[in-house]
Amino acid sequence: MLRLPDGRTWRAGRACFGLALSAALMFSVSAGALVIDRERDASVLSDAFFGAAANLSVSVANRRGQLHQYGGNSTGTFDQDSVFGLGSGIVLSSGDVGVYGAGPNYNTGTSTAYGDIGTPQQNLLANEIIGTGNVAYDVTELTFVFDATTEVNSLRFDLVFGSEEWPEASGAPDGFGAFLNGELIASFTSADLGMGAFPGTELDGVWQNGFSPVLEVAAALDPFGGDNTLTFLIFDTADDEVDSTVFLANFVASPDILATPEPGTAILLGLGLMALASRRRRL
Description:
By secondary structure, this protein is mainly β.
């Protein structure tokens, strides 16, 4: 393992085009097809994700992410996306989001090592995604608390999940999860069967259904009203090397009333994954 001065690493024995390529070429924010801006302000991330939705109000936006002394940042915004077709939104990573603009894939072991171990609460959430007994590293957690108007019954958003851990991840895969009011409504790992190569990005593997990497998540809000809490969590497992990234966009506060499935149920709908979940009333 070769560790670069800015904290990123190259895995020995893996294919790359050599260190002769300039760091600016390999690690700069890409222009054109997918433009990423590193951003640590949670209110800016909130605006970029929820947009101008008039039927809800966000009261809390909280970011617990990573920053590197050489400029790396584990959260950001993106636009001009013609790689995945998401348009614009936010991006979270267990590494540096600035690496994951448009490709090509110059390095199959891109990694930003922050050396940070997840909190006990973050590890509890991570273990819902990858199984118990694992330790999460370089965690990025983004939480929003919002109240919706009475005609809003559910939410929808699109995501793309990708990883540098594919295809070698097995016993300790990276993970991503979305939680609504404490319920896991969508999760992915770098070892999922749906992972595969996708051109035009630095990511080694991207979760795909059919020919589209864009997955739609839909979830029912609390039918009794009040505040709702939406949390996104992405992390490395067992160490802080080789990262995963998620792009989130196209949030909609919807009047649709969704059926309540059994816990953990996921339904494939067209070219997207619709994960349905609802919050049980807490007495």
